[in-house]
Amino acid sequence: MPVKDIVVLSGAGVSSESGLATFRDSGGLWEGYNVHEVASIDGWNKDPEKVLAFYNLRRKQASQAGPNAAHYFIGRLEKDYEVTVITQNVDDLHERGGSSNVIHLHGELSKARGEFDDSHIIEIGTNDINPGDKAPDGSQLRPAIVWFGEMVPLIEIAAQIVAQADLLIVIGTSLVVYPAASLVNYAKKGIPKFIIDPSTPELFSYADWIHIKQSACAGVEELEQHLIHLRNE
Question: Is 106 noted as a catalytic residue in this protein?
Answer without folding.
Answer: yes
